[in-house]
């Protein structure tokens, strides 16, 4: 048996006393007990308030005197106890069931109180080797010594939380990692350094894909895991993350520590049922890199999978109706909470959104299982949190409730179980349509709520041949999305996969840098409300995990008309100016004709199908023949839901994949000289005078459209 704990003395205390009384079940008098007590002498005294790692290893049985070894800070002090002695008699040790036990004072009368703190107490049912004790010391003291003990950030300071999914460190090129470079501390820290002073308040470290730890682990030691992988597959295990840890580093520990160094909240986001690479479990040969996701527990228990078809995400994940599956995940969460000084934990229910066989479980069973797991984690966080501190518990759930029943989600029960924050997500893309108003009705005011944005708005049509396969968001899209969420009652914004879309360039650096500067706006609901140039969108998104029924894509035949719902939220200054709406297909539609109505008002066509806003976001589509555009006025839009009607009047069939609506900016660098000035008005005047633009009008009622009609508009557009 081994008992491990951390101790820290109050300043000025130079003596210490520890007593552990452990009693068996063979009798009730005090003679049948094993007593170990030790106290500081001049040889073993400590001063100051530093943490120390203490381990007592007891080995004995009913018929022989036990062996007791005493370790401080990973090194053995004595194999017979320390000064002050070791008292014992010949009993079988049963600390757990006997009910006797005291750490910090005498169990009999409370004498000799320990002046200080005791933390991270563990009781092992086996003997620890000296090497294991040294490892335990190094890992344990990471949680209580190497990082300062600080209060978790207050909710009022957590406006934006940022999920760093970790895998982007290797799959994306950046200023801190070029192609083919290995994982290093510089790379790990660089992914956090770039978040500093951007408006982001909390960094959520995602330590792998849920089954194979990206940290030094006792629940699944990498030596054991690598041996199994080699013996089973005949392939040397080796993913860069696990190799990094195998060589003595700690991805998770470094991320948490560096988050605090950058004044970011140090949170963990844990994936409860990730599916990545599990389809390779039966491959022969398997890739060594798959050792970062495939482990013996998953391989040995095919009956725990939701189905036999490994090509399907919803079947290759594991069935949470089995307690063994939940316990396997909980062990890893427990190890993190025990060994690291994290300030909050998010349980990610969307990676991936399948947990139960719906034919063998009912709604109440699913909800009870998920809620009980939440309660179990809340108890874990409370047990492992230092006195006077609080660790926040959150869940990442869909922003639509259609899947809540099959996922076992009941927000009220989860909140009662100890959830502090809820992160409403659309899984993969930024989506402006949601059910937040309904979902927030069941969330009390003291629970913090977030709405998630990503760096992409939709998939790329098949005609695209670029390395990326996603349409990137404009700043205006992100701010408009946040404004919609704040209007619905959300407290803050979360970000996911925001670093994930950096393609390689010839010099090996990132060709597209995430727009981190937008978070200073997203963090402030008032700034979002004051933002005038709104950008709304309906697109083809990843709908399976959320239950959202996509409005696009939609295949049109000639004379077919389709209505779309477009929720809008009025800015503080009210809507103004002219707006443009575009529709886009996945093929050339220049030979087709279309009709569009907005809230029943027929819109005029607009020849301009260009991107509305400058920026580095790169829409990924360069072919104007895939678009049609229409003009509308700010008078046409309403606060709340708007109905957009789109009709194909000739040609077809056509597959429509994208629709956006945006306010035409008042001032633009139209001549692309790097500044907005009166020279841009000449460009605007020529465009305005073109009757095909849909803007030309006989404003002065002279009987003709000329530059005099442009004067009022020019005055409004001219910079000060």
Q: What fraction of the residues are assigned to beta strands by DSSP?
A: 15-25%
Low-confidence stretches: 9-48, 80-101, 143-150, 463-468
Given helix and strand content, the structural type is: alpha/beta
Distance between the termini: 79 Å
Largest sheet: 8 strands, parallel, barrel
Q: Radius of gyration in whole Å, from Cα?
A: 31 Å
How is the largest sheet built, in terms of strand order? 8-9-10-11-12-13-14-17
**Tally of DSSP helical segments:** 19
The global form is elongated
Helix proportion: 10-25%
Total strands: the figure is 27
What is the arithmetic mean of pLDDT?
A: 80
Polypeptide structure, described:
- The chain is an alpha/beta fold and 720 residues long.
- It is 24% helix and 23% strand.
- The chain has 19 helices and 27 strands.
- The chain has an 8-stranded parallel barrel.
- Strand 22 and strand 23 form a beta hairpin.
- About 11% of the residues have low confidence.
Topology summary:
Layout: E1 2-9, E2 17-23, E3 33-39, E4 51-61, E5 64-72, E6 75-78, H1 95-98, E7 116-124, H2 130-144, E8 160-164, H3 168-171, H4 185-193, E9 202-205, H5 222-233, H6 240-246, H7 251-261, E10 265-271, H8 296-300, H9 313-316, H10 323-339, E11 344-348, H11 363-384, E12 392-398, H12 404-407, H13 411-416, E13 421-425, H14 436-439, E14 448-453, E15 456-459, E16 470-472, H15 475-488, E17 492-496, H16 519-522, H17 525-530, E18 535-539, E19 554-556, E20 561-568, E21 578-585, E22 593-598, E23 601-602, E24 604-606, E25 627-633, E26 640-650, E27 654-663, H18 679-689, H19 707-717
Parallel strand pairs: 8-9, 8-17, 9-10, 10-11, 11-12, 12-13, 13-14, 14-17
Antiparallel strand pairs: 1-4, 1-7, 2-3, 4-5, 5-6, 15-16, 18-27, 19-27, 20-26, 21-25, 21-27, 22-23, 22-26, 24-25
Helix pairs in contact: 4-7, 10-11, 18-19
